[in-house]
Every structure is written in structure tokens, then in C-alpha cells.
Description:
Blueprint: H1 22-43, H2 49-65, E1 71-75, H3 81-85, E2 90-95, H4 98-107, E3 112-115, E4 129-133, H5 142-151, E5 158-164, H6 169-177, H7 192-202, E6 204-212, H8 222-229, E7 242-249, E8 262-268, H9 275-281, E9 289-295, H10 302-312, E10 317-322, H11 328-338, E11 343-346, H12 358-366, E12 372-376, H13 389-406, E13 418-421, H14 422-430, H15 443-452, E14 457-461, H16 476-495
Parallel strand pairs: 1-2, 1-4, 2-3, 4-5, 8-9, 8-11, 9-10, 12-14
Antiparallel strand pairs: 5-7, 6-7, 11-13, 12-13
Helix pairs in contact: 1-4, 5-7, 13-16, 14-15
Amino acid sequence: MNNTKQISPEDSIDESNLDFSPSSVRKRYNDERIKNWDYVADQLGTLSKIRNYYHSRLQEVYKLSIPEGARILDLGCGNGDLLASLNSSFGIGVDFSGGMIELARTSHPELEFYQQDVQTLDLKEKFEYIILSDLVNDVEDVQTVFEIVKKHSDSNTRIILNFYSHLWSLPMSLAQGLGWATRTLPQNWLSVTDVSGLMDLAGLEPIRTTKEVLWPVRTPFIDSLFNRYLVRLWPLKYLALTNFMMARVKPENTQVDESLSVSIVCAARNEEGHIEEIIERTPELGRYTELIFVEGNSTDDTYNKIEKEIAKNPDRDLSLYKQTGTGKGDAVRCGFQHAKGDILMILDADMTVPPEDLRRFYNAIASGNGEYINGVRLVYPMEEEAMRFLNILGNKFFSFAFSWLLGQSIKDCLCGTKVLTRENYLRIAENRSYFGDFDPFGDFDLIFGAAKINLKFIDLPIRYKERRYGETNIDRWSHGWLLLKMVVFAARRIKFV
């Protein structure tokens, strides 16, 4: 019997001199791709307007999330056009293609560009924003890239990436064959779940995900219709070319920091009967707690009652301000203007949210688990007369609408109890002009603003209580109509852009 092993042509290849260490495998992988992207760099001058449109649309989406003047690191920067479009105060682009880096340096001399493998990068610097546009589809080790991203991030850094949807693998191959798309080598076809899992392993966590670009070619009227509107709608959004993800560094130490100070703002209009109990039941939190009352336009004796209770409690840090404008939003902004604490809280004076629950809000933000803590009244059973049936339906509708608008869950957008850091509130105030001073309630000024600066939302359920004194200041019909107009406004400024 002949026991000689039959050798196939594949087996006959002499691989004895090949080094299969991770670094060598990565080098061979990168060398192949460097050659491809150097070729693409040589051809960029002849790219058609069809291929350029996709990248111009990406620039528009990135501009929505990144303010001008930020410190930005662009990994896989290509020719540097995306980084340049963001008007950074300090921008660094990194790419392993020498051809791309040469183009970037020539076109954008005001920025810094480095030819280097992003998987071994160590700049010894932190950045406000790190972007990875069409990068994770092409690198040898995505998890390592995310670990490098983490090294260049702190707790305030926002990581933004976009990557191709696997549904477009065949259309992209056809487009490349016709010369309509940039030539690429075999790609990593990753789902949102895949990327989220790799982020988790690297110590990152997603904040929100959106779908972008249904029509990747410039076509008058059609490209705007598809890429601004139809891509936001079910089920068409699942056909989008690219997934956008916003992420941050996952908190490693979730111990509650008790060294932070707290300012609680309580807008009080016709709430005379609740003032004494508010002071008595509001807990001391962190290093110290100040309770700020803002009274405006009351027809009862609320202002004088607050003055008397402040005099009776000299051991508490209590203060009172007279509102000059109208509406709860104006009152909250007045209180925040005078607040000195590291953490800012809103407590409604109607006592429908127990003041004792503020401890849980403090824990949620002082542990780093969330950056914008939003009270939710729609999870636990309410007291019988706490909220009328039509109000419950309206709240559920608007919560659904705003979750869709913001791209992350917010189960009760109308709950008055909201918590954020003073630092983040000041950032929201600086960007208020984007939305304008349109919100008499103050809720949406904060919600929209927090979404615009990419804060991590946390929904915190509370048990909603029945008001025991006075009457609600909310008119379900007029205020409901105003809320509906605000949804439309937000859609134009946040969603359909």
C-alpha cells in the first residue's frame, strides 16, 4: 500500500520563510492596503463628482455633532478634507498611506498629519473628539484600534465613527467595477452589534446610533429627499449605506463621588403650601447642598413664605430670587445662573416627585454612569390623581417622538426632575443660539442642548405623587399644541439635516 501523502498546489507553496507573528501578519495586511490607498491617492484628481458627493454628505453629518474650535484626532484621515471641514482649533490626522498624507499636507498645511499605522499610535495627547470615518471596515484589528482610541480619550471625549452596512457589499462591488466608487480591498462587514461588542471589550460604550446616506450620488432634489428625510424613516433607514455611532469612554470606577457640591433649583409659582415641606425633606448631598428658590408671578403668598422659611433655617444654604421673566424655563435659567454647585438639579415645587429621590439622581451622575439624568414618571404606578389619562397618553407620545428625534431613549421628556453637571450646562448655554430661546418650560432647552453636545442620557424611574396643594400650572391643550410645534422644530434642527 502506498502511504505517500498527496500534495496539492496550495500545499506546495513554500511558507517556511514567512513570519506569522501578529506584527508580521499585520505588516503584510497593511502593506497590501497601503499600496491600494497610494493608488487611490494618485487617482483622486480624476474622481467624479458622483464619488465626491458621498464624502461631502459625511462632512455635513460630522459638522452637526462637532462644534467649531474643538481638538480633533482623525484616524484614517485620507486626504484630510473631512478634518479640514470641521474648523478645529487643533487637528491631527493619521493615515498609513504616504500618498494620502502627502495630499493632506499639501491641501491643508494648517493641520498636522502623520503617516502611521493607527494600531500602534501613541501621541501622548487627549482630544475632545476622535473620528474614524470608513476606517473600521479596512483595518486588520478593530479592537486594537478602539484600544488606541481609548488611550487618546478622557471622560469628556466623544468618539464618532461611520462604517459601511453589509447590505451594500454587492452594490459597492458593482459601483467600484464601474468606476463610481473608490477602489477597496475585501472589507470587514461589521454590524452595529459587532462594533458595540468590540467597543465594550476596549472600554468604550455607545451613546447613540444613526443611519445615513440612502442615495450616495448627487442628484438634484432626490439626494436631499433620500438623505435628509427618507433615511430617518422605518423601514428605509435599515437600507442606509453607512452607520454612524457616537461613543465615550466607559466609566471604570463607578463609585459615587461624595466630594461634589450640589445646587437644587426649585421654581415656585403659587406653591405656598409646599415650601416648608420642601426644605424639611430635601436631602443634603455630596460636599454641600444649596437650595435655590425662584419665585415669579404668584397670586398667593409664596414669596413671603419662602423668606420666612429661610429665616427659620439658618443652618441650611437657602436662597431666594425673584423671577423677572415668565415661564418655568426662565425661572430655571435664573436659578442656574446663581448656582455654585458642581451638579445642578431641578426639583418641582409641587412635590409630585419626592425630594428624597434626589439621592438616586446624585448617585447616577456622581458615579459617571450618566451625564444627563432624566426623571421618568411612566414606569412605576402613579398615585390615583397624579396625572390625568389624556396627559399620560400625551406624555407617552412625546416621549416616543423625542426618543426618535434624539437617537437615544428618553421615556419621559416632560418630567420636571433633571440633573446634569454645571460644566455641561454651561456648554449647553453656549450653544443655545442653535435652537433659540423658544422653550417656556425649560425641559426641551436642556434636552435638545444635551443631545446636541452628545451627553449620555440615563432614564431614572420615580414614583409620581399626587399634588396636595394648589393646582397645576399646565394647560393640556395650549401646552400640548406648543409641544407639538417644538417636535416639528426639533426635527428640522436635529433629525432632518
